[in-house]
Task: structure prediction
Amino acid sequence: MPIDQTASTHRALEADVDSDRIALGEEIRKLRKARAKTLADIAAATGRSISFISQLERGRAEIPISDLKRIAFSLGVPMDWFFPSKEQPPEEVGRIVRSGSRRRLGPATGGLTEESLSPDVGGEFEMFLATIKPGTTFEAPTTRGTVEEGFVVSGQLSIWMGDHQFDVKTGDSFRVYDEPYRWENPGESETVLVWVIAPPTF
Result:
């Protein structure tokens, strides 16, 4: 390969690396703020200094995978949250979420899987897709200062709001307005819901 072509390739690679570093820093910052975490919280989770985390969020520092795992754990997302598909056209970023590119919220444990349907974090509300296995339960025993709405795409759900129980099924929707609630999938098949929360808690 000619010398000038090699130099050009190296410059392009460095520009790509710089772009990735900046994008990662922005993603960490947006998610940290959406989770109401401070720089000190992330520094404590990684054993790094606040100054280093600040530099990282501005795309001016490299981070080892081990530290990124700790950040992901602290923010309640899987590692792949920070590595969205590069196949998405630039004009779709922040606007469109393709079905094969949804990012998972938290670990897929306890019979509940949640995938973000919002193109980005940090907006006025969060929308996600919840897939609930039969027999799975969840309880929010205290108020969270949120308004939450759900639409049952398929399956059924028993939901308790205050002293009332409601049974909803495919095509039904509901709202929980800043009150304790719990739910259960009482059926024999998965329940799929579109869930919206304002302000975001994920």
User: Anything to note?
Assistant: The helical segments are 3-34, 39-46, 50-57, 65-75. The first strand starts at residue 103 and ends at 105. The chain has two domains: 3-82, 97-198. The chain has a mean pLDDT of 85.
